User: What shape does this take?
Amino acid sequence: MLCCVVLCCVVLCCVVLCCVVLCCVVLCIITKFPQCILILKYFAAINYTEYSFGLTSF
Assistant: This one.
């Protein structure tokens, strides 16, 4: 788990997006790390934008 947190949250070189979100959630719960909250908001904004564009593409 620690390796996952380091790879996904600190270095952010993870291929699977859900791994990043999962590790950041875990790290936020454990350490209250503010940078991970910003990362989660960033990914949430990307997902929301893609979802919105997906709806308008029909």
About this structure: The mean pLDDT is 58.
